[in-house]
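Handout, page 2. Input:
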Amino acid sequence: MPLNDKDKDNARRSKTKTLPMSKKLLRIIGRTNGEFKLIGEGDKILVGLSGGKDSLALVHALKHIQRHAPFHFEFEACTISYGMPQEQYNSLGEHCKKYEIKHTVYETNIFDVSQDAIRENSSFCSYFSRMRRGALYSFAEEHGFNKVALGHHFDDTVESFFMNMFYNGSMRALAPIYKTSRGFHLIRPLIQARESQLLAFAEDNKLELIGDEACPAMLKEVKMPHARASTKAWLAEIESKNKDAFKMFRASFKHIHDDTFLDPTRWHRDDIVD
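Output:
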């Protein structure tokens, strides 16, 4: 008896190659997707794949969602090449091939451009991050993606919140989803997962990770970033003294009383007549 379309689809999903991922982590990612409606029927998603633990966890999380979700979407991975000497992503490409993840290395001249754009002993993180994001967006535009997915986790958004407060004088975190100026949405499916969970996924599966050696700054005389490192250390100290600190951060991010701050535009007053 021939299979109907639903049976064919279930058979295809059952053959999908995936790496084991903890049920707790999958629940968090699934709950995040349901809560913020990040991925839906018919989406075409581009994943920024650096080869670090976060982005590798993201592509495999999407494989699990693809296998079990009651809706259909497609995704592929893109690695931005800075154009550095001896830069190569062969092992990352082989990994994606093994797990049937379509993968493209997008060649750029970011490293050459940076020779004139960044002065000696200047900060580099924001520059390379901005250039890499722009290249990823360009690839997404060129190939018709309606969403771009990044591997930011909950530790990232807490760190960003306090860095913005301490160094920029603003209260700002990382949104689970927002519409970019290019017209597509950026999504962060791992935004409620802890960094330790993603590290455990990489270690449990013995993944070959790409780290700082792929950063262009390693070939330049620039100041190493201190703000994120010091903020991360400060938060680790807080959590060592209060194991529920990040639970409280998560609750705080969902219970915002913005009319209690020193911004009159957020107040609702009935004692003033315009």
